[in-house]
Amino acid sequence: MVLADIKAIGLDRDGTVLDNMIQRAEAFAEAVIQYYPGLASEKDAIIISVLQTRGVCRFDHLEFLINKYGLPALLEEQKIAWSQLFEEFYRVKPVDIFAEVVPVLQRLKGDYHLFLSTSATDGMHPKHLKILGPLFRNGNQSFMFENKPGFKKGRDHFEYVAGELGIALEQMAFIGDSPLDIRLANECGLYSVGIIDNRYGDDAKEVMLAENPRLYIYSLDELFREGF
After folding, report:
1. Distant-in-sequence, close-in-space partners of 16: CB < 8 Å, separation ≥ 6
2. Is 8 helix (H, G, I), strand (E, B) or coil?
3. pLDDT in tens, 118-148
């Protein structure tokens, strides 16, 4: 695969387009502590663990914490209520789009189809949707995850977008800030681009490179230097 073959570029939402991973990790910890008050002293540790495993489904991470600390499991209805509480805590936190995102996407849109993909189940804030929506539209077809809420980031969504565009998976690139993003892209034959954010730990680069991205960058605007 060479860059000249790329026709579409997908981007992860949280931590790649939205500068929100710290806020999501804080909201996750706060919701956990509401159900398990005994973990209040572990709040910072929980936040760090979420940042280090970003991209993992919130329910899977909750299960990890329950097992780690030997906590009683939640019933299904409690899990749903806990997830809704997490979203409530997150929604009141200020979140911005990374400063370079809009100008980079405006420039990329001239040469590539763009799509957004996420593992999160919550929708995008209206103020972000107003700014980003026009950048991810192809005629009457929106390639934003809100149009296909049953899809998760990965093969199902990649194949859907490829089918709508009439291109092969190998003609798509995917950009994400988590090792999971790179793993999913590589498994599906996409050109994988990892964004390294050193706020997530001193080993952020090492962890990302362990997944063998085709390219790694520290900011989206570095794409043009690399040939996009």
Report:
1. 98, 175, 176, 177, 181, 195, 220
2. strand
3. 766 666 778 888 888 888 765 444 465 544 5
Give the number of other CB atoms < 10 A from CB of residue 86: 21
Q: Which residues pair with 121 in a beta bridge?
A: none
Q: Are strands 8-12 and 172-176 parallel, antiparallel or unpaired?
A: parallel
Q: Give the three-state DSSP class for 194.
A: strand
pTM of the model: 0.86
For 176-203, the pLDDT digits (tens) are 999 989 999 999 999 999 999 888 777 8
Find, among 191, 204, 139, 185, the residue nearest to 5 by Cα.
191
CA dist., res. 159 & res. 123, Å (int)? 21
In sequence order, the β-bridge partners of residue 195 are 217
Say how far apart CA 164 and CA 2 lie, in whole Å.
22
Structure token digits, residue 129 = 């949707």
Supply φ then ψ for residue 175, to 5 degrees: -115, 125
Cα–Cα–Cα angle for 185, 189, 191, rounded to 5 degrees: 65
What is the C-alpha to C-alpha distance for residues 62 and 83, in angstroms, rounded to an integer?
10
d(CA 74, CA 3): 47
**Quick check: 16 and 176 in contact, CB under 8 A?**
yes
